[in-house]
Structures are given as C-alpha cells and as structure tokens.
Amino acid sequence: MTIALTDVTKIYQMGDTTVHALAGVTLSINEGEFVAIIGPSGSGKSTLMNILGCLDWPTSGSYRLAGQEVASMNDDQLALARNKRIGFVFQNFNLLPRMSSLQNVALPLVYAGVSKQERQKRAAAALASVGLGERMEHRPNELSGGQRQRVAIARALVGDPAIIIADEPTGNLDTKSSIEIMDIFCHLNGQGRMVILVTHEPDIADYARRVIHVRDGLILNDEVKQGVTGCSGKVS
Amino acid sequence: MFWESVLIAFEGLRANKLRSALTMLGIIIGVGAVVSLVSLGMGVQQKVQKSIASLGSNLIVVMPGASKAAGVAHSAAGSNITLTNQDAKAIAKEISGVAHVVPSVSGTFQVIAGGQNWNTSVQGTTTEILYIRDYKVGSGTFFTNSDDESRARVAVIGQTVATNLFSGSDPIGQTIRIGKAPFRVIGVLESKGQSSMGQDQDDIILVPITTAQDRLIGQTYVNNINIQAESEQVLDKVQEDITSLLRTRHHLAAKADDDFTVRNLTAIMETMKESTSALTLFLGGVAAISLLVGGIGIMNIMLVSVTERTREIGIRKALGATFRNILLQFLIEAIVVSVTGGLIGILLGVGGSYAISKVASMETVVSSAAIIGAFGVSVFIGLFFGIYPARKAALLDPIDALRYE
Ligand SMILES: Nc1ncnc2c1ncn2[C@@H]1O[C@H](COP(=O)(O)OP(=O)(O)OP(=O)(O)O)[C@@H](O)[C@H]1O
Ligand SMILES: [Mg+2]
Questions:
Q1: Nearest CA to ligand 1 atom 30
Q2: Ligand 1 atom at shortest distance from the alpha carbon of A45
C-alpha cells in the first residue's frame, strides 16, 4: 500500500489573511517505509499528517491512498479507511477518559463490526504487545503519560493497519518513555507497516530511514539515509 | 452494530446519571399527566354514561309548567297542577310507539318505624317504573297494579331507609308510618349508590301513586310523567304527539303557550356526554403540552451533550465511526431517555389516577389507548427532538471535532 500526494495545498482563510499551511506538497511513500517529518513550529506538519490520516482534506491537489483518490471517497469509505488502513497516534493521546485501556483499544474494532469476544481478545493482545498487559482495566487518568501513549498505539495497531501515522507521539514524554515508544514503532515497522511520524527532536528522527524537512508548507529536503541507520542502528 | 450503538448510548447516559434523570423527568411528568388526566376525563365520561344507562333509554319526561327557551321548566303560580293521572293514561292509550308511561308524585316525609325515625323522599309511582328506571327489588316484592287501584298502603323502601329504620333486622312485613299513615313494607330495593350528581339514590320510599295522592299528599295532579318510547326512531314523533295530545286535553288555544314541558332526556344526556369527551380532550391537550415541553428539554440536553462530547465524537470518527454510527449513538440516547421516561410516566400516571380515585373519590378510567398513545408519543418525541442534535454530531468533521477545546 502506497501513499501519493501531488501538489497538495491547504489554505486557511482567517479574515483578511490567508494562511498557506501547505503550499504545494508532492510526496510519495512506499509500503513498509519509516518516515520522519521534521520542521519548525507552524510549518504545516500536523496539517500534512491530518490529510494523510484522512481526518482532513486538501484545498487542492490530489491524495491517492493505495491508488484510490481520497477526494472521491464518500463518508463511509473514508470511515473505512480510517478504521482499517490507518492507525493514527496523537500527541495528546486522545483516549476516551471514561473507558478502561481495554475498552479504548477495542473501540476501532467496534466500528469494524468485530464480535465482543474477539474484540476483547485482540485488544488484550495489542495491549500486551506494547507491554501493558497488566494495565487493561486502568482508565487513562490512572496511567502515566508514556503508558497512555502506549495504549493509544495499541489502539492504532489493533485493527492491523498497513499505515501508522503519529503526530509528535513523544512530544509530551520524557526521554525514557520516548525510547520505549520508539522501540514499539521500530517493531511495527519491522512487521512491514509503513510508519510516518512527526517530531521536533533529531534523536527521534534518527529512528527513521527517510527524513523529510518541511518549512512554510513546503518540502525543503527529502533524504533517505544509507548504511546501518534507522531502527537497526538504535534498537539494542 | 445496532446493539453496539445501544450499549454505547446506555454508557453515555450512565456517565451522566443526574442529568439523564432530570431530562427524563420532563417526559415522566408529561406522560404521567397525560395518562392520569385522560383517565380522569374518561372517568367523568363513564359516570355520565352510567347515569344515562340508569335513566333508561328513549326516555321522555313531561313536567307541569311552561318551558323557557333554554329548556328550563318554570312554574308560574298554579301552573304546576296541570298534569293528571288521566293525562298519563291518555298518553298510554292514544299514542303509538309508547312502551311505558309512569306518572309520579313525590314529597318529603318523616317516616317512623319502631323507635326510629327518618326523613326521606317518598315517591308515588306505578309498577312500570321498574322497566324504565333500573330499580331492582332486592328482597320481597314490588307493588302491583291492583295495589294501585285499591290504594293499598304498601311501600318498597331503599337500602338507606332500611338501614336507618331497621338497622339490620328484616324490614319485610314490618309496618312503617309515613307522615300519619301506616304502611306495610313489602320489598327492599337493591342498592344503587350515589347518582352522578352525588345524591344517595337509596334514600327513597316507593308507594303506589294513587295511595300517595289520596293518603299522603292529598292531590290529584302528578309531578311528572315518565314515558319510554319503543325505539329511538319514534322518539321525536312520540314527543310531538304527546305535545299535541296534551294541548288538546288541556284545551289550549292555538296561540297559547304549552302549560307543560316535554323533555327528551336522552338528548340532554347525549349533549352532556359530548361535553365530557370535550373535557377529556381538553385535559389530554393540556397534558400534551407538558409532554412537548419535556421533549424540548430532551433536545436542549442533547445539544449540550453533543457540544460537550465534541472531542469524543472526533476520536470516534478518527477511529472509523461512520455518520450512521454517531447518528445512531445519539439518537438512541435520546430515545432511551424518552422511552424510559415514558415507561416511568405511565406507571406514575396509572398510580396517580388510582390515587385520585381513592383520595378525591372521583371515578377514573385508565385507558389502554391513553397508555399506548402516551408511550408512542414519547418514542416519537425522542426521535423528533433527538434527530437534530444527533445529526449535528454525526455531521462533524473529524478534524474540527478533534480540535474542539
Ligand atoms: N484550523 C486552522 N485555522 C487556521 N489556521 C490554521 C488551522 N490549523 C492550522 N493553521 C495554521 O496552519 C499552519 C500550520 O499549522 P500546523 O498545525 O500544521 O503546524 P505544525 O507544523 O504542526 O506546528 P507544530 O510543530 O507547532 O505542531 C500554522 O500557521 C497554523 O496557524
Ligand atoms: Mg503540529
């Protein structure tokens, strides 16, 4: 499954001023790639991620997800893409506060029409895979920041998506938690999933084999590192 | 997926118990009011129907005195002595379509039996009263036509009279004094209870009419003549025939007013019946307004709830919830509130109308139509007032919802 953007713009009209959050981005990402997107604040990273995650729509340009033009998809098809193809990880976790970890993780499966028993099984497995097998009944406010983000990642991967999109997943975490989270992303990438993540920190970007620099809504630089880099160089 | 949405909706409601309960209260009060007020109205209606039935059907009453336009008999001086037993006999003999003719006189007397005395209404009438009023003889017998002809001093007494004069012992065969004249009790009427006007219908003594005229009241005229027509179809004709017969018998000139009043009781009661169903409708309508207010309450709370949970909606959408998933979630929440409120309201309404009948001693009729109707309306209200907020929620863009602070 590949992703292809062509001349994508996102323009916000704020009264008299026009903000070009994306000013014409052309980009394609192949199956199984690990991509980091870096750039200064306000450069359009989140805007780009939201569009890639089918949460937002370009003002103009084309976005093809696995060969299909996203602009031509209807509401149900978009919901299906968000449910089955893409796992989205937010900087602020976005867990439902009144639900246990298990219920939060199982939520995408509810909308996928999976039976309750199967949901519990798969959600428990996903939680175990991020090292939270012991915290299934905890609610988000009973977990640390790093644990919350791991619940959110478990939720993103429970539907077995081909693409994981993470907008500053370690932005709210300390170094130790960040390393744990990045190990999980490496593991997911190792399973053949495409991982795209936004970060401010060069340390985090080092996990990715391909790094895209964004500034003022444009791609400044798109480099693929050679040699022993990315996860293989980091994971102990 | 449907049941998932129901479960999600229930969880949403459980998370906000107090608010859900308060929202429900509007519907509870609305449905409860509809059920209890309609049952109250129907109780009044039933009471009227019962008294129509107790009057007997196709009844015409002739009273002395001219009637005013409004139909109220007004007795000018001396004019209340115009009707006689002979008038009654003539009606029975000469007018076709008449089933029964019952003249009667009445007066209030002190009645004494043994050491007890009691003031009651004594009515002189004929055997045929048994056909046109639903008097039934509980024990003993009723007087006959020959009792009437022989001016026999026999009496049939009501339950209240029996209790007050004989306090438990069998009155049959006993002698009572009505005014100064001694009468033998030959029968006791079955209890009829209170009339629709609140009168005790058992506080009465029936005696043959000629006996009453000669030995009690000392008059030859009668207070009224009750006539039962053979069928509803001949009712108007009989009424007209009676009028012209009596005019002839009373030698009234063509231009002179009637010196009597002929009234069709059935028609009067029908009018009363209509006005009581109007009352039921009015009570139901007032209650329905409170149901509407309850519905608006649901909409209000749902709108607040959608705004408050915008982020939740965004998260759900980001995870793959469709327009229908979100719509269903909020719609079901609204319906659960209204249906639960409706069910509680029905219980409360039924209990309330039971309480009204006990405490206020008013008759109430809990109708299944009102219950089903109120329930149906509460489901509809949930749908109607839930759909706008639910649609609003379902139409949210995921990114806008996620960004909502
Ligand atoms: N809903 C919006 N309305 C108006 N302008 C917006 C909106 N969302 C983003 N922008 C603008 O678009 C530009 C890009 O924003 P974006 O969130 O993509 O930046 P970013 O690279 O993610 O920044 P950060 O690193 O701080 O998260 C910014 O100038 C921002 O003000
Ligand atoms: Mg951002």
A1: A42
A2: 21
